[in-house]
Amino acid sequence: MDRARISAGSYDLNKFLFGGYETDIITTLYGPGGSGKSNFCIIVAVSQAKKGNKVIFIDTEGGFSTERFKQIHGGTREEIEASLQNVLLLKPTSFEEQEKAFEDLLKHVRKGDVTLIIVDSIAMLYRLELGAAITANDTKKIGEVNRKLANQLRSLNEIARKQNIPVVVTNQVYASFVRGDDEAQRLEREVSMVGGDLLKYWSKCLIELKNFGGKRKVVLKKHRSLPDKEFYFEIVNSGIRKKGFF
After folding, report:
1. Would you call 161 helix, strand, or coil by DSSP?
2. Phi, psi at residue 63, to the nearest 5°?
3. In this structure, what CATH number is given to the domain that contains residue 148?
């Protein structure tokens, strides 16, 4: 079955995803710091903004870089400024502000001119809020924080399905230390996503990004129509470039 897609902003990513990101689902990119998550987000934001399409970018970690946007864009000053006007940047600094950002997001979506939603990252502020509740041993607050994250994901899923708007979110990971592992084993250990089951449930596409010893790899872990696969890549001025085989 053919499904609508938007360009991921990279020839290699488009080939990897058989056309790009699907428009009616949540795609989650997850991995450790320095693995390239924010770069993937800016790459697709540039691709859409250059076409005159409106992008909502919720940046909870300060990962959106105007300089990196300009570098990837590669156009004239006037062209870059025009593209930046197509990006609505929301920068919540608390989980409460993230909730407010989602309310603002819904208002803009209703206007009908949004073609891409990015949340980088979905779980960072959630993780801080949840950690505070766990430290305080406040079971009621723990349940409330989890419900709020579930509601945010439910809203994103509803927007994607009903409005046919692609949603790309990033997520952090964690891994437990195993004594006796050598360096290579530690780097290749399986990691878990923050808010794991919630993100796995609502995301129809899961893409893991890895960074070990300066080598970066993208791994397709879940997709409705494509098999698991992977390739090595490097970050370059224009975006990313493949270094290994699909």
Report:
1. helix
2. -85, -15
3. 3.40.50.300
Please name the residue ranges forming H helices in 189-232. 196-202
CA 1, CA 153: separation in Å to the nearest integer? 26
Range of the domain at 14: 5-242
Q: CB 93: neighbour CB atoms within 10 A?
A: 10
Structure tokens at 30: 């997850």
What pLDDT score does 197 carry? 78
Q: With CA atoms as reference, report the closest residue to 66 among 85, 51, 92.
A: 85
Q: What is the DSSP string of 104-155?
A: HHHHHHHTT-EEEEEEE-SSHHHHHHHHHHHHTT-HHHHHHHHHHHHHHHHH
User: Cα angle vertex 132, ends 126, 136, to 5°?
Assistant: 145
Calculate Rg over the CA atoms of the chain: 18
Q: Whole-model pTM?
A: 0.89
Structurally, the chain folds into a number of domains equal to 1
Smallest Cα–Cα separation from 117: which of 132, 106, 127, 129?
106
pLDDT for the residue 106:
83
Type of residue found at 104: D
CB-based burial, 103-125: b 16+ in 10 Å, e otherwise: eebeeebeeeebbbbbbbbbbbb
Query: Which residues of the chain fall below pLDDT 50?
Result: 1, 185, 187
pLDDT value of residue 1:
43
Give the residue from 137, 135, 116 showing the smallest Cα distance to 20. Answer: 116
